[in-house]
Amino acid sequence: AEPAVTEETTAALAIRRVGVVGCGVMGAGLAEVCARAGRDVLVAASGAEGLARGRDRLERSLAAGVRRGKVTEADRDAALARVSFTTDLAALRDRQLVLEAAPEDEPTKLRLFRALDDIVEDRAAILASNTSALSIMRLARATSRPGQVLGLHFFNPAPVLPLVEVVGSLLTHDRTRRIAAEFAGAVLGKQVVQAADRSGFVVNALLIPYLLAAVRMYESGFAAAEDIDKAMMLGCSHPMGPLALADLIGLDTVAAIGTALYEESKEPTHAVPPLLSRMVDGGLLGRKSGQGFYTY
Ligand code: 3HC
C-alpha cells in the first residue's frame, strides 16, 4: 500500500525555496542534494572567494556523479540551473527552509541565527543547522522563533551518504520536526534518525572518540598511518580508515567537534590530542587544504 500522505508530507513538498548558508564542503554538498531534489537553492557565502570555491566544488561533484553514472547530463544541467549564489545574507529573505552550514564555531553560528531571524520573512520557515556538536537550544534561543529551529545533520560526502540526523531541542515544535524529517526523507530521499539535543547526536558521539583514538595511536608511534587505516578497512570492512576519514571530514572540523563534545562531557576520550591541535594551527586540514595525515 502507498504510505499515507500526511499534512507534514504536504508541507514538506511545498518547500520549494531553500537557502544554504556557507559553501564549504558541507554547504556545497547540501546545495547539490537540494538542487537534485528539484528545489530552488540560494547559497549565501561569506565572501567572493569562498563563493567561487563553493561553485567549483558543486560543479566538480556533479561532474563526478555523471562520470560514475549516478547523474545524467540533463539532470546535472538542471541542478546547476537551480542553484544561485550570493554574498548577501539578506537575499535569503524569501526562503522557506534555511540550512546553515557555516564552520563549526559557536559565535559564528549564533550570529548567523540572530541575523536569519531578522532576515527570513516567513514565520513558518524552518531554520536548520548542520552543526555536529553544538547545542541546538543555544542556536534556537538566538532567534525569536525557537519552535522553528532544529538540527538537520548530513554526512560527508552529502550527495552520497544516505543519513540525516533530525535533532529537535526542547523548544522545537513537533510539527517542525516532522516536516523537516519529511523533507529529508520524502523530498531529498535520505534515511532519517531522530536524536536528542546532546553534543555529537548519535554518529559523532560514537565516531569522534574513535577518530581521536586513532590520532593518539599514530602520535604515540604505535603504528604507521597507513597501517592503522589498512587495519580498520580490512579488519572491520570500513570503507576508509580513521585517519583518511579525519582528512575527509577536515581536521579543523574534527578538532572543533572534539572540543564541543569535551566541553559537554569532560570525557578524556573526547579531548583533542596535541598533534591534531598542532596540525590545525599549521593549516594542515586534510583533503581541503591538500595536506593532513596524507597528501592530496
Ligand atoms: N553523486 C552521486 N553519487 C556519487 C557521487 C556524486 N557526486 N560521487 C560518487 N558517487 C557514488 C558512486 O557512484 C559510488 O556508488 P556505487 O558504489 O553505487 O557505485 C559511491 O558514491 C562511492 O563512490 P566511489 O566508488 O567513487 O568512491 P569510493 O568507493 O572510494 O567511496 C566514499 C568514497 C563514499 C567517501 C567512501 O569511502 C565512504 O563512504 N567513506 C566513509 C565516509 C564517511 O564515513 N563519512 C562520514 C563522515 S562523518 C560526517 O560527515 C559527520 C560530520 O559531522 C563530521
TrEMBL record:
Site features described as Important for catalytic activity, chain residue numbers: 153
Residue stretches making up the 3-hydroxyacyl-CoA dehydrogenase NAD binding domain: 18-197
SUPFAM superfamilies per record: 6-phosphogluconate dehydrogenase C-terminal domain-like, NAD(P)-binding Rossmann-fold domains
Pathway where it operates: Lipid metabolism; butanoate metabolism
Family per record: Belongs to the 3-hydroxyacyl-CoA dehydrogenase family.
Domain 3-hydroxyacyl-CoA dehydrogenase C-terminal: 200-296
Molecular functions per Gene Ontology: 3-hydroxybutyryl-CoA dehydrogenase activity; NAD+ binding
EC number: 1.1.1.157
Origin: domain of life: Bacteria
Keyword field contains Oxidoreductase: yes
GO biological process, one term: fatty acid beta-oxidation
Natural source organism: Streptomyces luteogriseus
Enzyme class: oxidoreductase
Name of protein: 3-hydroxybutyryl-CoA dehydrogenase
Pfam families registered for this protein in UniProt: 3HCDH (PF00725), 3HCDH_N (PF02737)
Record keywords, A-Z: Oxidoreductase
